[in-house]
TrEMBL record:
Coiled-coil region: none
PANTHER family found in the cross-reference section: MALEYLACETOACETATE ISOMERASE (PTHR42673:SF4)
Entry-linked InterPro entries: Glutathione-S-Trfase_C_sf (IPR036282), Glutathione_S-Trfase_N (IPR004045), Thioredoxin-like_sf (IPR036249)
Taxonomic superkingdom: Bacteria
Organism this protein belongs to: Aliiroseovarius salicola
Protein name: Glutathione S-transferase
Organismal lineage: Bacteria, Pseudomonadati, Pseudomonadota, Alphaproteobacteria, Rhodobacterales
UniProt-listed Pfam families: GST_N_2
GST N-terminal domain residues: 12-78
């Protein structure tokens, strides 16, 4: 049975990113709906989900509505105890919950000065002492988790867990404002930036443009520090494929990559692929199937 998840704009809503990763990274079935976080319709859009006021909000298959990412995380863990949302080891799980709770309620300077935005890196950002203090604490927590429980993989507790879900937007803030951290911490930030789920979230967010741009209007941006997308361009013409790799519907919109034209069922499917073609397994599988 499938959950419903209501999110804000992917490029800017850090809490929505957390909510979506809980489903995406642990293979929990979900239908996602974007509500009007910046269009002025948020209150109206969330009325059927009362008493929800903010995103994300989830509705379970039995109709239970849960808001706030911390409540969502615990509810999903209760309903899917074998999904691996928390570390199995009790000591690791206790520390992971501590880190998540501190992230959920703390780091106000980082939140205020460096809102999550996935467009690029803000140039010439001046870091306050308060943000430096937040970064030092974040690095302390990351290092502690890795030292005590990170032997089985690259994430905070070895394998991916809710701790990584909650710190994914922190990694995005560090990347989006070019914040200086230790080599160990930067490696963890880069791990998020290269993660395919994170890349899909960003690529889909970039299909929407803003005028004015929330949070950073008028500021100069340099290139996003994540993986450089494989070159593609929107185009017209006849495509190799006749059905969309995502929906299976007939193609209407096209891109060119490596001299070949591929088709999609709508502009969003095409544009999210243009933004980061290697983030989308279904697209790459189609390319391989047709070209070898």
């Amino acid at each position: 049975m499938t959950y419903d998840l209501f999110i804000g704009d992917r490029t800017f809503s850090s809490w929505s990113l957390r909510g979506w990763l809980m489903f995406e990274k642990f293979d929990l079935p979900v239908n996602t709906t974007r509500v009007g976080l910046y269009s002025g319709t948020l209150k109206e859009d969330l009325e059927p989900l009362a008493p929800a006021r903010f995103v994300p909000v989830m509705r379970s298959p039995d109709g239970t509505v849960v808001g706030d990412t911390l409540a969502m995380a615990e509810t999903l863990h209760e309903r899917h105890p074998d999904a691996g949302l928390w570390p199995k080891d009790p000591s690791a799980r206790a520390l992971a919950r501590w880190l998540v709770a501190e992230m959920h309620s703390g780091f106000g300077a980082l939140r205020d000065d460096c809102p999550m935005q996935l467009l690029g890196t803000v140039a010439d950002f001046v870091v306050s002492d308060e943000v430096k203090t937040d970064l030092a604490r974040i690095e302390e927590l990351w290092s502690l988790a890795r030292t005590r429980h990170g032997e089985d993989g690259p994430w905070l507790f070895g394998t991916y867990s809710l701790a990584d879900v909650f710190f994914a937007p922190v990694a995005a803030r560090i990347a989006g404002f070019g914040l200086s951290v230790s080599l160990e911490a930067q490696a963890y930030v880069d791990l998020h930036l290269h993660d395919l789920a994170f890349r899909r979230w960003r690529a889909l967010g970039l299909t929407i443009s803003y005028d004015p741009v929330p949070y950073i209007e008028g500021r100069t941006l340099t290139d996003w520090p994540g993986p450089t997308p494989r070159p593609t361009t929107p185009c017209g013409g006849l495509s190799i494929n006749t059905t969309c790799p995502y929906s299976g519907d007939p193609v209407t919109d096209f891109l060119e990559m490596d001299g070949r034209v591929w088709g999609f069922c709508n502009p969003t499917c095409r544009d999210k692929t243009v933004n980061d073609p290697e983030a989308w397994p279904a697209f790459l599988q189609m390319v391989v199937a047709h070209t070898g």
